[in-house]
Amino acid sequence: MREKEEQLPLNSKKSGRPLREFDKKIFEGLCHIHCTVNEIESIFHTDQRTIDKWCQREYGSDFSTVYKLYQSDGKASVRRDQFYHCKRSPAMAMFLGKVLLGQVDSPYMAKSPNDNPIERLIEGIKAYAKPAVMIETLKEENELHGT
């Protein structure tokens, strides 16, 4: 049946709205600098559905997958810039690392894998506490409570 279908003449025009085309370099750059989908829509004067269809044609994948791919390139440049800016503004480097790269402050850095901060605290207290003072303190507490 398909062989018998009518073929359009070579000089006929396609019907329907023409496909939207965007500059790939600009699109990739916008993803690279972490523009939101709303900002990309505004720059290209279109909606997300049109951008998604364009991504399917150009990249063979949906918008969110393409966006994540090129956004990750932007994360690499943030890391590189962190090293540059930490000489001038360590606070900015820390902020960008936390917000864009998911870095966190570590409140405790273990000296070794077997290092336990609670045990170190107890040992420190024992080292500074004199047994005689501890005994006197216990006696005073017992007298106060009547035991």
Molecular structure report:
62% of the residues lie in helices and 0% in strands. It is an all-alpha fold and 147 residues long. The protein has a domain at 19-101. The protein is elongated. The relative contact order is 0.06.
- How much helicity do the residues have? 55-70%
Quick one: overall form? Answer: elongated
Largest sheet: none
- How much is the radius of gyration in Å? 33 Å
Please give the alpha-carbon distance between the first and last residues: 104 Å
Residue stretches low in confidence (pLDDT < 50, at least 5 long) are 1-5
**SSE topology string:** HHHHHHH
Main attributes of the structure:
147 residues, mainly alpha, 7 helices, 62% helix, disordered N terminus
